[in-house]
Structures are given as structure tokens and as C-alpha cells.
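Researcher: Before we compare anything, I want clean individual predictions. No alignment, no superposition, just each chain on its own. First chain goes here; please echo the sequence and then give the C-alpha cells.
Model: Echoing the first chain and its structure:
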Amino acid sequence: MSTVFASVRINRTPAEVFAYLSDLSRMADWWQGVAEVRASGPVRKGSGGMFTKTAGTPPQTVDFQVTDLEPGRRMVLDFHESRTVSQADFTLFEGAGSTRVLLGWTVEGGGWRSLIAPLKARVAQAQLVSNLRLFKALAEDADYIEDARRLAA
């Protein structure tokens, strides 16, 4: 098992950032290699759905589940991809007029896949930084946040 971290500071309140983060239908806008996200229903602990990944040929679908949820503070997603399980742990910290988002990405594989988990995690590190930078740009966009507020209401 290997875990890597990335973080970004966003000039929005935790409530605004969380509203955008937990709108999984928008995750394809900022998560590299994801073409579509289909949630099985509202985001809550135990809910799930499917991602369609464009990375790799042919495109793959990956099941996910929300394994922990603290609205306004934390969301954990588990991804089940063949014999590899990955976890994205988003934690929000309130600052002076901003929110810091910490993303921990854990990759765990069984058998021979456990040998490639550290490599997969290191490759993911650069993608996490890129993903969070795009997330920041979109989350700080006033129109985008207003859309997220309407969807949350």
C-alpha cells in the first residue's frame, strides 16, 4: 500500500468548496483521465456509482463508493478497479478567508499488484497536483460556485 498527498488553498469558504467537491457529476471537469461520473444517487456515506476513465485503451469503467462523509469537512471515495483498490481522501481545513484542501491518494493491490502500487502512487502524485490546481481554478469561479449552490439547495 502506498499513499501520496497534494494540497491546494482555495479562496472560498469550506461550505462552498464542499458543495463543489461533492457534486460528483462535475468531477470529470477537473479530474484528469475521467470522462464521466455517474452517481447512484445523492452523495452520502455508502452511496456509490461509476467513473468512466479515458486513460488507457479501451476506456474503462471503475466502480466507486463514498466510504466516509462529513459535510463541509471530509469526503472519502474508494475505487475498485480489477484487483486494485484506490482511495481518495479529501479533507477541508478552514483558513482566514480560504479553505485548504488536502487530498490523500492510497493505492493498494493484491498479489503481484502490490509490487506496482508504489509506482502507481508516485505517478498519481503529479496528476493530483494538476487535478487540484484545476479544481482551485474552477472552484474560485463565481458562476461555477453559484451553480453548485443551486444544485445543493
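Researcher: Okay. Second chain, same rules.
Model: Second chain and its structure:
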Amino acid sequence: MIYKKDLLICKLSVADKTIFFKRLSKNLDDDAIMLWILNIPFGYYCLYLDFICMHGSAILIKDKVSLFLGFSGLGKSTILSLLVDNDNIMISEDVCLIDANTNSSKIIPSFPIIKNENKNFFKKIGKKVDININDNRNRSFFQIHDCFFAQPMWYEIENIYVLKLDETNSINQLSGMKKFEKVFSHLFKIPFEKDKKIFIDDSIEEKLLSKLSALLNKTNVYEIKRNDNIEDNIAFIKKNIEAR
């Protein structure tokens, strides 16, 4: 599989379990290369290693892991940035690598970087870093301090929250096919063309859908509808999450 972004080409070799990359510009530094490889290319690659990979953010709140899923621009990074403090620890941003089996569903920390346009969110928890990557939303990169980032181990997932914009704040628990549909939309899937299969390999499709079902059977899934007032959102989300 070949993935191209800006000035970097990645070639993913499933048989050899390796990732090769080619730098197309000297202006692309090592930090930028590693950040991109550990993002979308890594997420697609993990499909072949029997892991679930989600586009979302994850945080440890009172020893319980919560996942926030949502399409670009719905506030996953901002919510994560504002929830992280002395008691709430960041686990992952953008790429959530999950091991879902018959006994439990667990997530492992990714890298301590959050993309955001508001530096005021990071006065206490992190610092801005210069990474030579063009972000189409003009966001900056912030590195989270070690004390606010999870240790490298697997953490069991308790709750999944799917974000949606609305006029008022509300939260509803999902079940059945609604639960599956909302979460499936944020699963890393091989890029596909219209009217063609989502997965390029039947065995991968079968394994991933089985693991996704296992994940949903062991977690609570909620839809959070939020308005445009971020301070109001955070107060509402924090109150509801800490109560569960």
C-alpha cells in the first residue's frame, strides 16, 4: 500500500511488516516524518495486524478511559486539550490504536502531540513545538508534558462518545445498530472508490468487523450533541463524563 501526503511517500509492506518512506524535500524534518508515519499510514497499516484503529481522541478520567470520536472540526482536539489536567491524563490524539478481543478492549498511548489553534489551552499542560507540516486548518502543534501523558501500557476502554454539532447540549446512550453505525464511521478503512468495496481483503473485513463488535459489546456508547460555545461544552461534557 502506498500513501502520499505533502512531501512524503510511505510504502507499507504487509508481508514483511515494515514501513518504508521516501522524503521528497530536504525541508521535511525527521519530527515531521515520524508524526505523519505514526498517523494515517500507521493507522492503515494496523488494519493488517488485527488491531482496530479509530480517528479520535482518548483520555483517562478517574481511571476510566473515554474515547471521543467525530469528523474533522467537531472539537475532539479542543475537548481533549481542555480536559487534560492533574487528574485527567491524555492517552491519544487523532489515531486511537485498539486491541479488541473476547476478554477486553484496550487502547495504548500514541504520541504526546495535540494540534490546535489556541495556545492559551496549553499554558499549563504543554508547549508549542515547531514541526514542518502544513495543516489545512492552520493549527499549531503542542507537545504535552510527560506528567499529563499516559504511561506506555494498555488501558481498558469504558466509554465512547461520538460528537455532533447541534443548537443545544445533550447526551444520549446508543444501542443496537445505531451504536454500530455511529462508531463504524470513524474506523480507519482502506481508501475506496465509489461503488467499490470498503475493504480490499475479505479476511481483513471479517476480522475487523468481529473486533469492532467485540469493542461495542464491552463499552458504553453515547452521542454528544454540542453547541458552538466551547466553555459551555466543556462544563457539560466534564459533568456528564465524571458522573459515569
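Researcher: What stands out in the second chain?
Model: The first helix runs from residue 30 to 37. Additionally, The CA atoms of residues 192 and 224 lie 29 Å apart.
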